[in-house]
Write a structure and sequence with these properties.
Length: 126
């Protein structure tokens, strides 16, 4: 049996980073029993490869029905989707904000995480 090919080196060759990422931690309980949003944590994602989804890949993403632009990010660091009270990570790529909607863990099969981001800030056409 052969070991999986480490594809993490391809991310280094196709690096478009560093890309700024905004992560919000789960809400914290205040003194009155309510929950307050935590302050965003910012960090840079580097190395990272990115490309726009098209064809069959685009059809498999449920958000493609509501959003015309989906970008796939391959990184060695895990990005997070909205889950259990945690807000999704937001990646800034080419001056626009992409909300992470799906993450696949290929850490053992090649050393990468594959995350799909939906365009968050739609630009109006004049």
């Amino acid at each position: 049996m052969s070991l999986p090919l480490p594809v993490g080196c391809l991310i280094d060759e196709c690096n478009v980073g560093p890309l700024p990422v905004e992560r919000r931690l789960p809400p914290v309980q205040n003194d009155f029993g309510g929950f307050d949003a935590s302050a965003p944590v910012a960090f840079d994602l580097n190395p990272v490869a990115a490309h726009t989804l098209a064809g069959r890949d685009l059809l498999q993403v449920p958000e493609a029905d509501r959003n015309s632009e989906i970008t796939r990010f391959q990184a060695k660091v895990r990005l997070f989707v909205a889950d259990g009270g945690q807000a999704p990570d937001v990646v800034t790529y080419r001056g626009r904000r992409w909300r992470i909607v799906r993450v696949d863990d290929y850490l053992l099969q090649g050393g990468v995480f594959i995350a799909d981001g939906a365009l968050e800030d739609l630009q109006a056409i004049p």
